[in-house]
Automatic annotation (TrEMBL):
Name this polypeptide is given: GTPase Obg
UniProt keyword Transport, yes or no: no
Organism, scientific name: Desulfosporosinus hippei DSM 8344
Record-linked NCBIfam families: Obg_CgtA, Obg_CgtA_exten, PRK12296.1, PRK12297.1, PRK12299.1, small_GTP
Tagged with keyword Hydrolase: yes
Entry's Gene Ontology cellular component terms: cytoplasm
Gene that specifies this protein: obg
Family that this chain belongs to: Belongs to the TRAFAC class OBG-HflX-like GTPase superfamily. OBG GTPase family.
Keywords, sorted A to Z: Cytoplasm, GTP-binding, Hydrolase, Magnesium, Metal-binding, Nucleotide-binding
InterPro entries to which the protein is assigned, alphabetical: G_OBG (IPR031167), GTP-bd (IPR006073), GTP-bd_Obg/CgtA (IPR014100), GTP-bd_prot_GTP1/OBG_C_sf (IPR036346), GTP1-OBG_CS (IPR006074), GTP1_OBG_dom (IPR006169), GTP1_OBG_dom_sf (IPR036726), OBG_GTPase (IPR045086)
One Gene Ontology biological process: ribosome biogenesis
Residue ranges constituting the Obg domain according to the UniProt record: 1-158
Amino acid sequence: MFYDRAKIYVKGGDGGAGIVAFRREKYVPEGGPSGGDGGRGGNVVFVGDEGLRTLVDFRYKRHYKADRGDNGMAKNMSGRSGESTVLRIPVGTVILDDGTGEVIADITEHGQRVVVAAGGRGGRGNARFMSNTNKAPTLSENGEPGEEHWLRLELKLLADVGLVGFPNVGKSTIISKVSAAKPKIADYHFTTLVPNLGVVDVEDGESFVMADIPGLIEGAHTGAGLGHEFLRHTERTRLILHVLDISGSEERDPLEDLRIIQDELKLYSPALAERPVIVVANKIDIPGAEENLERLKGELKESYEIFPVSAATGEGLQNLIYHIAKVLPDISAPTIVSLPDEHRVTKVKSDKRFEIRKENNLFIVEGDEIEKHVKMTFFDQEDSVYRFQNILKAMGIDAALVAAGINEGDKVEIAGVSFDWV
């Protein structure tokens, strides 16, 4: 099955915890603190793989987590770092944040690596807290939590040439004749339900990749037909072959078909309308096609190159292939992938380090920095609690709570942990 969209959850590994330990050797008086740091959590990494053509692997498994780091050990030994989780995805996949629509990465090359969820750093052991004023610290840190995201993956096929046109104009037959692709072919609309890729061999080792883009009709950019599902697969093509039924066997005007599809491409992405286009006048073997061909040439000769072919008999296909191979080296690949409006987002970043909101007698403090400190603090260690109180004061949270009207005995909640205000 062809799957070109997926939604998955990824989480980097949590860092390992630092520990409290002291050297206790027979002839080493006052050995001092020796608690090691925790290991770093593993990352979740995407790697582009040109051998993959679909996102089907993400249909059945949607949650991916990297290994957490090991805890620190005595004698200043750090814990082992967690193993990263490496996920292979097809070249041509766009990775987006599912919540904001922000584009995180665009995988365009084989072997390209992108870290989508970084692992947390390991917590520090007590040896790291020794100072001139505190020779025997009894505090350590928990590991930093790894990053976590819901991601949306969208595959946009990487092809040199894209076949577009109304249903039943012969796109699938053309790609089956010039490559080894075996699409389903039948004499009814929307036979082709998924894009098909084929490698076209020319000569002397030359080749190019051709894609059959199904389902384009009028209104495709708004969701009509199948076009809204597959228009994005045309975004990366360098050359567009617009296939027309020049015989008019579907009782449509070929000139009007060309105008409608070109308008759909422009409405979806203005950059698409500027791509080089070759008009392929198919079904030239059917009676009545010659008249439409002459009319087409008269109208479009100055705007487009026109190649009359018959996909059924193979007439004209070889000339078309040689011409494509000749012009492709001079056409640069699109460098910027345009995205539909739903992917264009404006991120507003707050300058505030934290925010306080009140619910009855509960004061809720929110902010990435302070929430991370909560998760990395061992509240069963007296020195760790004292350090955390100093962090609250240094960040200005104590003063902000007083200004918000907090009273003795009120509750404060940070990252799901409740504290009594005294």
